[in-house]
Amino acid sequence: MRITTVGLDADDTLWHNETIFRLTQDRFRALMGEVAAPEELDARLAAVERRNLALYGYGVKGFTLSMIETAMELTGNEAPARLVADILAAGREMLAHPVEPLAGVDVALSRLAERYRLVLITKGDLLHQEQKLAASGLGDYFAAVEIVSEKDASTYARVFARHGTGAAEAAMCGNSMKSDILPALAAGAFAAHVPYPLIWAHEAADAPAGHARFAELASIADLPDWLGRLG
Amino acid sequence: MRITTVGLDADDTLWHNETIFRLTQDRFRALMGEVAAPEELDARLAAVERRNLALYGYGVKGFTLSMIETAMELTGNEAPARLVADILAAGREMLAHPVEPLAGVDVALSRLAERYRLVLITKGDLLHQEQKLAASGLGDYFAAVEIVSEKDASTYARVFARHGTGAAEAAMCGNSMKSDILPALAAGAFAAHVPYPLIWAHEAADAPAGHARFAELASIADLPDWLGRLG
Question: What is the CA angle A98-A102-A107, rounded to 5?
C-alpha cells in the first residue's frame, strides 16, 4: 500500500475561518443588542442558517443573507436604521478579510508536495475560496483544486479518482469530522483529523472508534510523518 | 482538423435564466415603487452590482445582496416594513425556480453526445448551478461539468485541456459574446454564438468580424450540423 495523493481541507485547516465567522457573529450581537438577547439571537440565526442551507449552500454570502433574515424576523421587519446596511458591510468585510495561514502549514505543505500529489478540497463560495487560496500564497503546492457543494463519500471517491490513483491510495486531512474525515474513510481513503479550536455547530460529529485508516493529529505539522509511516 | 470536445454554456444557452432575473427585477421595481422611479432604480442596482462583482461574483445570492444594498441606499437605510423580507423572499424564489430547458436543447445534446465529449462550462453559484443541472434532466449528456468563477481565455484553455484534447480541437457554444465566444476564440477554440432574446448588461459585446472559427447560429438545433461541416 502506498499513498500517492493527499487531499487537504482549506477553512480552519490551512487558514483561519471560523474565527472570522465568530467575530462577525459578535458584531451581529452588538448590532442587535436592542432587539434580542445574545442566546436568543444565536439560536435564531442557527435555525435560519439550517433552514437555508439546502438553498444557499456554504459560504459568506449565504451567511450574510441569513443574518439579514434573522434580523428581519426578530424586528418584525421593522429594522432600526442602518442595521441592514451594517450587516451588509460586515458580510463584505468577511469576503475581503486577509487570509491568515495557520502555524506550520507552509512548511508541512512544502514537505508533502515533494512526495505526494496535493489536492485542495473545500466547500464554500467558489469565487471566495479561489480568492483566499490566491491570497494565502499556498496555491503552488497544489496539483488541483476542487471546490465542491457537498463533501460526502462519493465526492472523495470522484476527486481522488480524477486527480490521483483512487481513494485507496489517498489520504484526507481536515478539521471537520463530519465533512473531512468520516466521508473520506467511507470512500476508502485514509484520514487525519487536525482539530481547530472552534467548530461550526453544523460540522460537529464524533470521532470514528478504533479505525485502522484514521489518526488524530495535534497539528498539520505531524501529517508528513504520519503519512510516511503508512508506507 | 477534427472536433473532439464541445463546451456548452448553461444559463440562457440550455435553459432560461435572464428571464427570471428580469421578472425579479420587475418585482423589485414594484416593491420600490414608493421610493424610486424604475429607471433610477435600474441604474442604481446596475451600479451596485458592478461595484460588488469582484467580491460577490456571479449568481443569485450576490444579486439578492445587491438588491438589498440598493434598497438601503435609496431609502437612506430607512426601508419600509417588509421590504427587505420581500427582497429576501424574491431571492429564495429565484434559487427554487423550476428549470426550463430552451426549445431544441434536449435533441441537440442527444445528437452532440453521440459524437463529441460534452462539457458544461458555466459561471454562477456552485450549488445553484449543480441543482439546476440536476433539475434540467440534461446531466447525463455531459462528460464533465466545470463551474468557474470567470470565463477568460485561460479558463477555456485549461478546461479543454483537462476534459478533451485541447482548445484547437474544441468548440464552445453559448449566448454571451463576452464570456462564451471571444475568450474561447482567443484560446484557439471554435465558437458558435446562439443569441438569447435578453442579455445582462454586463455580458454585452460585439461579434468578432469575419473570424474563421466563429459562427452565429439561430438555434442550438443548428449546432450539430455546423460542427459536422467542420470535419
Answer: 120
CA distance A57 to chain B (A): 6
What residue of B is the nearest CA neighbor of A124? B126
- Interchain contact, B69 vs A61, CB within 8 Å: no
ipTM of the complex: 0.90
Task: Decide which of B38, B70, B95 is a domain's last residue.
Answer: B95
User: Which of residues B1 and B105 earns the better pLDDT score?
Assistant: B105
Which triple of cell numbers denotes residue B174? 453559448
Q: How far apart are CA A202 and CA A179, in angstroms?
A: 10
Please give the model's pTM, rounded to 2 decimal places: 0.91
Point out the domain boundary residue: A95, A128, A156: A95
Residues of the domain holding A70: 18-95
Distances (CA, A) of B203 to A41, B18, B186, B200: 40, 11, 17, 5
Residue of B nearest to A132 (CA): B55
Give yes or no: residues A87 and A190 share one domain. Answer: no
pLDDT of residue B1: 64
Task: Name the pairing type of β-strands A190-193 and A170-174.
Answer: parallel
